[in-house]
Model the fold of this input.
Amino acid sequence: MTDEPQPQPDEDREKRIAELEKRLARPAGVGVLPPVAAIALAGVIAMMWMQRDDVAYFFSTREPIDLGVEGAYRFDLAQTNRYVQIHGVPTSHGAYWMERDVAFIAIGVRETPLLVRRATFPNEAWTPGAAKAPPPDQRPFAVRGRLLSRADASKYEEAFKKHEEWAEVGPKWMLMAEQRPGGDYAGMMWFGVLIAFGGVNVWLLVRGVVAYLKPRR
Done:
């Protein structure tokens, strides 16, 4: 009976080195595959695109565009997604709805194509399903806020349609009362989270592609 030759220490060391090099040549186990990172990045870009108007308004000028007063309105100056001010008399009808358990109303401004969205006043008590909505507060008012075109305020299309039946002038604009540039910090924080998440996925995508293209040994 003869003994089989035993591997030499140098041979064992070389084998271990070769195994380690082979492991290092493989893609890292941490992270995601490039297609997954690309899909996540596309989703982030889509959400950022949907917030583009909010971001633009946040950084827009805080000096309001003056749309004028009764008898001297300047809607030739109106620009969507800008901070504006106006003084006027409310219409006799208003469209009511609820947002997060808060009652809101869209009222018209007489002799203008403008609706104003604001929270209801105490004398405008309204509950969903009520047989008859109370008339809006009829005091003349001055208001500042974010101006949106009808196309950009499409979520309030039902209010536009109702006012088309009531108003002398068809509504084309919606003024979001008390919404000032630079005030939506929560929205900007969410946008920052999207930027950070997008950056991580860019890194993962590049890392995965480089690892995939790296020559195997």
The two ends are 40 Å apart (CA to CA). The chain has a mean pLDDT of 85. The chain has two domains: 33-59+182-217, 61-177. Residues 33-59+182-217 form one domain.
